Amino acid sequence: MTDSDDNIIGRIELFIDISNQAANEMRIKGLEKLALLDYPTQLANRNYIEREIQSRFEEEKRLNVPFGILFIDIDHFKKFNDTYDHDVGDDVLKFVADTFVAKTRPYDLYGRWGGEGVIGIIRNIKDKDLEMLGNRVRSLIENSYIIHENEKLYVTISIGATLVDADDSIDSLIQRADTLLYQSKKMGRNCLTIG
Ligand code: GH3
Ligand code: MG
Prior knowledge:
alpha+beta, Alpha-Beta Plaits, five-stranded mixed sheet, 6 helices, binds 3'-deoxy-guanosine-5'-triphosphate, binds magnesium ion
């Protein structure tokens, strides 16, 4: 507010109470996060992975953008849980998840499929590159460790890698990757099988 000589003589501020609206928005964000996030690893959850693969199928059909998936499982994790305690196992799982996230290109997604199984959805990629990308994370995890009571703890992962086929469904795609993962386990673990 100014007087006739333009001197400031006062000010009016208006406040609107939006706490209801803000609380509601926060609640929705929280619910969205819960429905799509695997809280312990902070990766996408199974529900999110299924939605994402569905979108990738649409993209592949409409725009011809190919994609591949990596089915990843920690090797001998049970033994690990037995040797140390379950909390240490959880820390290792989180460390493995963080490694994927650190290496994720902005348009790829890693999610927890269940237990210690992780699925990576890799967009717009050819088979040789999918193999290289998978082996890069595999090798990174093999060569990293977490420290537990002054001891370095190492884990390895096995991977099944496959590119989407024209007649794939979510189930057939994941089933194929799972079979390839099983082959990596049979081959002695800490390796990637592509098919
Ligand atoms: P393999 O090399 O054949 O995969 O051997 P594995 O011991 O990893 O066998 P498998 O994958 O069948 O075992 C999964 C184990 O992972 C069982 C369970 O003890 C452990 N696990 C699954 N989810 C969690 C978790 O959230 N935290 C911890 N600490 N352990 C988990
Ligand atoms: Mg395992």
